[in-house]
Design a protein that fits this description.
It is built from 14 helices and 22 strands. The protein is an alpha/beta fold. The chain has two domains: 268 residues, 4-Layer Sandwich (Metallo-beta-lactamase, Chain A); 169 residues, Rossmann fold (3-Layer(aba) Sandwich), CATH 3.40.50. A seven-stranded mixed beta sheet has the order 6-5-4-3-2-1-22. Strands 7-8-9-10-11-20-21 form a seven-stranded mixed beta sheet, with helices on one face.
């Protein structure tokens, strides 16, 4: 086999790995690049492999940086099947349609206000194209072997992280390779920990937090402190949250704190139709998370759900409140309108709840920038900007090493991907020094032989 790295090298976004034999090609993940402009421009570039030559796509999970390129791949000629777990399929029905909608909205807004260099500005793909892509999906079960594209044997093992997330063991003749996907954490309040790692000759491992440890802090205490401090001074708390996983975790923490009367009894608004739909999916996959139906229902009942744009606009006033809205890196979605409204006021708080890729608005705000561009204009950032330090759905380097250490047999080589350069390099060194395995950090578009 040959393995080519079409994304997630020196960055946490754009995951795409092409596995090729003499007769077949499969793509592991099919994600969009996000963050820095130079990365986002890659989404518009011609793919280095002809989409029509790809026999199948296999997804580790539903997040857009792993699935969001699918409608474009199909438009450009892909006609094979897309394999994933059932929960990933259900989530992609929500996430891909929302992605297409956001692409169209951004193009419409750019054309209306003239802040794009392109005349006219066009969406990367449309909602209709995203909807048509759903017909290509086939759901497979965890812990079973399947033959894909005639040449490859694939098995999905739980990766934790979010509903449906998997690491993939792929075998071809006498060669095997394991793709970690995004590795979850052992003590997430909602999602079960990753399944034990299995043996493979080669390993592709993520390194989002490859250079750091999650702080040993109580997330509930962090949220309590920030909320009470903000409400006491008469402000509002805006929480950009990823619609899949993080929004539900944040809501669960707020529900628990309110139940224990540890935070002020202010209204909580869940302003993300997509996150609302994802919350419903959790009830369809009760075996994949820790919450009982009763706990899930109680947590969901703690918030007021906002559906229409008019409803979303109506909650923008200075009455103390908590707003959870997508997306988590403030790269799009309704949360931008709330940030634009609340960020200029120093009474308010913007509370980030997850990893911020380089160049995203979330990353820029956390670095202390006092103006951020939104909708073609500069918005003052006078609000307090805070990051929760221990709520990530990604394992830190210690948790990754603990997972790797249980691999029954050392791999021949480890490819460290899905991390900013310093994070990937740090994890590479840690793997070499602590496990004595050969590890490399591949470059964008690099191709390697798997013997």
């Amino acid at each position: 086999m040959q393995l080519q790295f079409l994304g997630a090298t020196q960055t946490v976004t754009g995951s795409k790995y092409l596995l090729s034999t003499a007769n077949k090609k499969i793509l592991i993940d099919c994600g969009l690049f996000q963050g820095l402009k130079e990365l986002r421009l890659r989404n518009w570039d011609k793919l280095s492999v002809e989409p029509s030559s790809i026999d199948a796509v296999i997804l580790t999970h539903a997040h857009i940086d792993h699935s969001g390129y699918i409608p474009l791949l199909i438009r450009n000629g892909f006609s094979g099947k897309i394999y994933c777990t059932k929960a990933t399929q259900d989530l992609c029905k929500i996430l891909l349609l929302d992605s297409g909608h956001l692409q169209e909205e951004e193009a419409r807004r750019a054309n209306r206000y003239g802040y794009s260099k392109h005349k006219p500005a066009l969406p990367l793909y449309t909602r209709d194209e995203a909807e048509k892509s759903l017909a290509y999906f086939t759901a497979l079960e965890f812990n079973k072997d399947y033959v894909v594209a005639g040449d490859f044997n694939v098995c999905f093992n739980s990766a934790g992280h979010i509903l449906g997330a998997a690491n993939l063991l792929i075998r071809h003749q006498n060669t095997s390779i394991l793709f970690s996907g995004d590795i979850g954490r052992p003590n997430d309040p909602c999602i079960f920990p990753p399944a034990p790692i299995v043996s493979a000759e080669y390993l592709v491992v993520e390194s989002t937090y490859g250079d750091r440890l999650h702080e040993n802090v109580d997330v509930a205490e962090e949220i309590k402190t920030v909320v009470n401090r903000t409400i006491k001074r008469g402000g509002c708390v805006i929480i950009p949250a990823f619609a899949v996983g993080r929004a539900q975790s944040v809501l669960y923490y707020l529900y628990s704190l309110k139940k224990q009367k540890k935070i002020s009894d202010v209204p909580i608004y869940f302003d993300s139709p997509m996150a609302t739909e994802v919350t419903k999916v959790m009830f369809d996959h009760i075996s994949e998370h820790r919450l009982s139906p009763e706990e899930g229902l109680a947590a969901c009942s703690a918030a007021h759900y906002i559906n229409s744009v008019d409803e979303s606009k109506s909650i923008d006033n200075l009455d103390p409140k908590i707003i959870i809205s997508a997306n988590g890196m403030a790269t799009g979605g309704r949360v931008l309108h709330h940030i634009k409204y609340y960020a200029p006021n120093s009474l308010n708080t913007i509370l980030f709840s997850g990893y911020q890729a380089a160049g995203t608005r979330g990353d820029i705000m956390l670095r202390g920038t006092k103006q951020v561009k939104m909708f073609g204009e500069l918005v003052p950032i006078n609000a307090e900007v805070v990051a929760l330090n221990n709520i990530s759905a990604h394992a830190d380097y210690q948790e990754i090493l603990a997972w790797l250490r249980n691999m029954p047999k050392p791999p021949r080589k480890v490819f460290v991907t899905h991390g900013e350069p310093h994070a990937a390099d740090a994890l590479k060194i840690k793997i070499e020094e602590t496990l004595n395995w050969q590890a490399v950090t591949p470059k964008y578009l690099e191709t390697v032989e798997l013997e």
